[in-house]
Every structure is written in structure tokens, then in C-alpha cells.
Amino acid sequence: MESLREFQPTLVGTIPLEIDLPESDLDIICFCRNQKVFFNKVINLYGNEPAFTIYSKEFQYLPSTIATFSTSDFTIEIFGQNRPILQQSAYLHLINEFQILKNKGKDFKNAVKKLKKEGYKTEPAFAKLLGLDGNPYQALLTLPSE
């Protein structure tokens, strides 16, 4: 995290929510104003790590960089986009899912973990348990605050 400090790295995903499985990865989102600078920095920092991959693609109409690599403990995914952290989808999912888990309690959390063990990704597991229709990633972003 320290090596990415200039990009405001923020841990999101299942681990901070305590709904991770042994095979869950560390998801780190970053705010990068310049994709090329970010892309090169990530290669310089992690390019020699096992299973390192990096690519750019458009995500929600913005150029984005995604890198993954392995350590002895985790697979790490780093996502960089020219969008402030508090406006990135992964952060908004984290906040909404945290609120849902807080409101629904331990049984709901256990049900999410059970679906994840069955192969569901996090957002589809939440959507299934909440009875949400359509794209689960979008549906979780549009839930009213409780």
C-alpha cells in the first residue's frame, strides 16, 4: 500500500467485509489521473511478481488499468481509474454491502459466504439473497440507504 500511496490505494472487496474465502484475492483500488504513469508504476513495482498480468480497458466509460499477481499469501488485484476513490464502483459496493451486512446480521452474512462457497461472486450472492433483479452490480449501487 505504501508503494502506491500517491494513488490513494484503498482495500475493498470481501476481506474488509469479512466474507472472504481462503481463495479470495486482495482488491485494491487506486485513483490515477494518468493511466500511462499508473500502468508503468505498477509494472515497475510488481512486474516481477509471480503470475503478473496487466492490461487496460474501458470500465464505466473510463480508461482503467487492472493488474494481478500472486504472493505467498494472496492473489492481489490492483485497479486504477481516473475517478476519485469515493466514487468508484468497488468502493460504493463495499459501503452498500457493509450497510446491508450490518442491518441483516450474522445469518445473512453466513448465507452470503455459503453462496460464495457454491461459486457465486459477491454481488450476485447479495442480489440473490435480497431478491434483486437485473444486473446485480448495478442493482447494489442503486439500493436506497437504510
Task: Please explain how this structure is put together.
Helix content is 40%, strand content 22%. It has a five-stranded mixed sheet, with helices on both faces. The two termini are 32 Å apart. Helix 4 (106-117) packs across helix 5 (122-130). The chain contains six helices and five strands; from the N terminus they run βαβαβββαααα. The protein has helices spanning 14-17, 35-46, 89-104, 106-117, 122-130, 136-141, and strands at 10-12, 26-31, 53-59, 62-70, 75-81. The protein is α+β, with helices and mostly antiparallel strands. The mean pLDDT is 93. It folds into two domains: 2-84, no CATH class; 90-141, no CATH class.
Please name the defining characteristics of this protein.
single chain; 146 residues; alpha+beta; 2 domains; 5-stranded mixed beta sheet; 40% helix; globular; DUF4269; hydrolase
**Main sheet, how many strands, which sense, barrel?**
5 strands, mixed
Strand content: 15-25%
Instruction: Summarize the amount of helix as a percent range.
Output: 40-55%
Mean pLDDT: 93
What structural class do helix, strand and pairing data support?
Answer: alpha+beta
Instruction: Provide the low-confidence segments as ranges.
Output: none
Number of helices: 6
SSE order in H/E notation? EHEHEEEHHHH
Radius of gyration, in Å, reads 16 Å
Number of strands: 5
Strand order within the widest sheet? Answer: 1-2-5-4-3
Cα-to-Cα separation, first versus last residue: 32 Å
How many structural domains in the coordinates?
2
The shape, in one word, is globular
Organism: Marivirga lumbricoides
InterPro entries: DUF4269 (IPR025365)
Protein name: Alpha/beta hydrolase
Pfam families: DUF4269 (PF14091)
